[in-house]
């Protein structure tokens, strides 16, 4: 999935990973969409942000 950086925050998405390309101050995400992996996770600790791109 290819995400694109928006000029504003994606409403409802909170991100605290300041090393991500899509991170905006105030813990916001500027990706136009996000992908959470893996498909068959059963707990939040098993999930990862597939959208993460290092700055």
Annotation keywords:
55 residues; mainly beta; two-stranded antiparallel sheet; 0% helix; globular
Oligomer: single chain
Structural class: mainly beta
Instruction: Quote the distance from N terminus to C terminus.
Output: 18 Å
Mean pLDDT: 96
Number of helices: 0
Number of domain modules: 1
Q: Quick one: overall form? A: globular
Largest sheet: 2 strands, antiparallel
- The SSE order reads EEEE
Radius of gyration equals 11 Å
The total count of strands amounts to 4
Low-confidence stretches: none
Helix content: under 10%
Strand order of the largest sheet: 1-2
Which band does the percent of strand residues land in?
5-15%
Structure description:
The chain has one domain (1-55). It is globular, with a radius of gyration of 11 Å. It has strands spanning 23-24, 28-29, 36-37, 48-49. The strands form 2 sheets. The protein has a two-stranded antiparallel ribbon. By secondary structure, the protein is mainly β.
Brief description of this entry?
The chain is an all-beta fold and 55 residues long. The protein has no helices and four strands.
